[in-house]
Write a structure and sequence with these properties.
This protein is an alpha/beta fold. The protein has 2 domains: about 130 residues, Alpha-Beta Complex (Spore Coat Polysaccharide Biosynthesis Protein SpsA, Chain A), CATH 3.90.550.10; about 250 residues, Hexapeptide repeat proteins (UDP N-Acetylglucosamine Acyltransferase, domain 1), CATH 2.160.10. About 15% of the residues lie in helices and about 30% in strands. It has an 8-stranded parallel sheet with strand order 10-13-16-19-22-25-30-33, with no helix packed on it. The longest helix is centred in the last third of the chain and has 14 residues. The chain starts with a strand and ends in a 10-residue tail after the last helix.
């Protein structure tokens, strides 16, 4: 069966995380949404419909994927939650909150449906089911139970001179180097060290996933997902850190989602608790929305650079390729140098500078900034011009 994964306007709520990648690339626990969809339905062929400026990037990462419409086609929203969904009929459209979550159609009906991707009763019976889609970005932080189910057990490989608190079988160490004098606490969930290097003095509390090539340098990790090639030396609590990001010195990332290629300077903090112990509110879709969460940190876009001692207040969104300094008390647009707390006006980052910085960072990890990635950055710079203008970001040189 063919799987057709599509984005709709819901991806806007997940900005800045989805500005640089398709929504199905977001992590929920240690798996992307696409991984979960694929493992649930085991398709023979996968095709995608994403925003125009992301198509070259998606093609380079996932290969060419034109729909075939040969036989039954399963249409899955790119923000579909990993839930067991019972088939409604041979052909159906399953909606959640008025949006298509999943549909199964064949032949001409599939072709017609692919043009609109709307819950159209003239094509097939529409069934409404609640809570099938991720609706808000903070749902991605509530991954703890999902992560427990994703991680293997049956370990460990011998970890010499390390303390294991709780059930040792819930610690799995695979193809990794673990130095002496580390602590692994499995009392609240399993831990999977998957091809990483864990240096002395590190403490990991489950559930936690540490990805291939990651390096924990005396870090303190609690209930978090640390993906491939991350460098981590500070504290991370209930957070996702995507691949190739750095927080190598003492810092704190709490209840946050950090995209790829982010660098967090020494002494930086993402606040995740208000002084009043009240619920955290966020600005989304031009509205102030109460998340209902007592603890919520930041959503940091791809390529962001946080200088030493950066303090980000609760529930803030930091746009891709921005440079942030000092106290961050509001959302930061993409390609912005933000240092209001140090007395400087927000200033637009030159596109050429952003590309040059990104190329240098990638080269340090042996990765080439290819034409598809460069084209994405150029398109995103144009796409976010209005956002910067509305936020009063000035053009010209930047000074502190």
């Amino acid at each position: 069966m063919e799987l057709f994964v599509f984005e709709d306007e819901l991806v806007r709520r997940f900005y800045p995380l989805t500005l640089t990648k398709p929504a199905f690339s977001l992590l929920y626990g240690a798996r992307t949404i696409l991984d979960s969809i694929g493992s649930t339905f085991s398709p023979d062929h996968v095709s995608f419909r994403v925003r125009d400026y992301l198509r070259p990037l998606v093609s380079s990462r996932y290969g060419p994927s034109e729909p075939e419409f040969d036989g039954y086609v399963l249409f899955a929203n790119a923000l579909l939650k990993p839930k067991r969904i019972e088939p409604q009929a041979d052909e159906f459209i399953l909606a959640s909150g008025g949006r298509v979550a999943l549909a199964k159609l064949k032949g001409e009906k599939a072709r017609r449906f692919s043009d609109s991707l709307k819950p159209d009763r003239s094509i097939a019976e529409v069934y409404e089911a609640p809570d099938l889609l991720f609706e808000y970005p903070w749902e991605l932080i509530s991954f703890t139970e999902a992560l427990k189910s994703q991680l293997p057990s049956g370990g460990p490989r011998q970890v010499d001179s390390c303390a294991v608190l709780g059930d040792p079988s819930k610690l799995v160490v695979k193809d990794s180097e673990v130095e002496p004098y580390c602590t692994f606490d499995t009392r609240n969930g399993p831990i999977f060290i998957d091809g990483a290097k864990v240096e002395s003095g590190t403490r990991v509390e489950g559930p936690a996933y540490i990805g291939r090539g990651a390096r924990l340098m005396g870090a303190k990790v609690k209930s978090s997902v640390i993906m491939e090639e991350v460098r981590l030396g500070g504290e991370v609590d209930t957070s996702v850190v995507e691949g190739y990001s750095n927080s190598a010195h003492k810092s704190y990332l709490g209840h946050s989602y950090v995209s790829s290629w982010v660098n967090v300077g020494a002494g930086s903090v993402t606040s995740d608790l208000k002084n009043t112990y009240g619920t955290v509110k966020m600005n989304l879709d031009g509205r102030r929305i109460d998340t209902g969460l007592l603890k919520l940190g930041s959503f940091i876009g791809e390529g962001v650079k946080a200088s030493i001692g950066t303090m980000i207040y609760c529930g803030k969104r930091i746009g891709p390729f921005s440079h942030i300094h000092g106290y961050v008390l509001e959302d930061v647009p993409s390609f912005t140098i933000y240092a209001k707390g140090l007395g400087s006006e927000p200033t637009e980052l030159y596109l050429e500078s952003a590309i040059r910085t990104q190329r240098r960072m990638m080269a340090r990890r042996g990765v080439e900034l290819d034409d598809g990635y460069k084209a994405m950055m150029e398109a995103l710079f144009r796409l976010t011009e209005e956002e910067r203008a509305k936020a009063g970001v000035k053009k010209g040189g930047f000074k502190i």
